[in-house]
Write a structure and sequence with these properties.
Shape: globular
Number of strands: 11
Radius of gyration: 19 Å
CATH class of the largest domain: Alpha Beta
Largest sheet: 5 strands, parallel
């Protein structure tokens, strides 16, 4: 089994290190000092107080890697359209592509059935580049739960979580999804294959579409957001709108709004990824996490006034900071 991790940052580096340590044929695509460090010293993984060094093949371009069985794309969603042409050398006749990204994935409406089948999300796939170059038939859904960081070139610090939920767009338990699940499990990760991957996507997106922009606008942690009555009420209103959109396209929410907010607050003094990106001057995941929900709401004629307001504000906040490219 040949596995390529395209974008071996925090999450990709964690996956690549664990898979390589488990004996799999792993190639990681990276650039700059991170690539140089991996080539010279291997990929260091710090987890549970233990430091281990993996030796995946580290390359600077997909052309150096060649066709793979699985390509796991771990870049942030807004970065993928710009590199999609670079993926071509990795794609053989049977290659599966696993977009391990936040937000609504570009393949979301592939084989969903009914009136939404085959729709394409311009907010996450401008011009349909991923749909046309990768092709939705290659896609395996993946919802990412671990938290990791890159404290230095060639080093991955695992912070929390080890679960990657997988699922085919058509809900079938395919041989390719099962084989990838088994590989991840062998590599010390949890990787259940779900028949309802879209439900998993929406439950995570439910919080991301709300808490991320609110945190970027306020600078508040999750505990501060959930603990402020006025801000909590705003979050609840946004989440009810997001829930209505998700349900309109067939998603089911197993948790109620108050419990979802309480769960976020229980994480404590944590800054969301969008706030961290803003503080570090990096591009923010606004389109995949928020604008994608608005796009689907427009298709479905569902009003989302609270979501629209925070989207407009966080876009301007990002533009002023130079952290939004559209």
């Amino acid at each position: 089994m040949k596995i390529c991790i395209f974008g071996a940052g925090a999450i990709g580096g964690y996956m690549g290190a664990e898979l390589a340590l488990a004996g799999y044929d792993v190639t990681v695509v990276a650039r700059g000092p991170h690539l140089a460090a991996m080539r010279e010293n291997g990929l260091t993984l710090i987890k549970d107080g233990t430091t281990r060094v993996a030796r995946p093949r580290a390359v600077g371009s997909a052309a150096q890697a060649g066709p793979q069985d699985y390509v796991i794309v771990t870049l942030k969603a807004h970065s993928v359209p710009g590199i999609v042409e670079e993926l071509r050398p990795l794609l053989g006749a049977e290659t599966a592509v696993v977009p391990a990204v936040n937000g609504l994935p570009w393949w979301y409406f592939h084989k969903i059935g009914g009136e939404w089948d085959g729709r394409q999300l311009s907010t996450v796939d401008p011009g349909g580049k991923q749909w046309s170059v990768i092709g939705p038939a290659r896609a395996i859904g993946c919802v990412v739960y671990p938290a990791c960081e890159v404290p230095g070139p060639g080093v991955i610090q695992h912070l929390d979580g080890d679960r990657f939920v997988l699922g085919e767009p058509d809900g079938q338990r395919s041989a390719r999804a099962a084989a990838l699940s088994q590989a991840l499990i062998k590599a010390n990760m949890k990787a259940p294959v779900r028949p309802n991957i879209r439900d998993e996507i929406w439950v995570k997106l439910w919080g991301n579409a709300t808490f991320n922009p609110v945190s970027a606008l306020t600078g508040a942690t999750l505990a501060e957001i959930a603990g402020d009555p006025e801000v909590r009420a705003l979050c609840r209103a946004v989440m009810l709108e997001v829930k209505a959109v998700g349900e309109r396209v067939g998603a089911r929410f197993a948790v109620d709004v108050e419990k979802r907010i309480d769960g976020a607050g229980a994480v404590g003094a944590h800054k969301t990824s969008m706030l961290q990106d803003l503080e570090r001057g990096r591009p923010m995941e606004i389109d995949a996490l928020v604008a994608s929900v608005q796009e689907v709401a427009r298709w479905a004629s569902i009003p989302t006034p609270h979501l629209d307001a925070i989207l407009a504000l966080v876009r301007q906040r990002a533009r002023v900071a130079g952290c939004y490219g559209r």
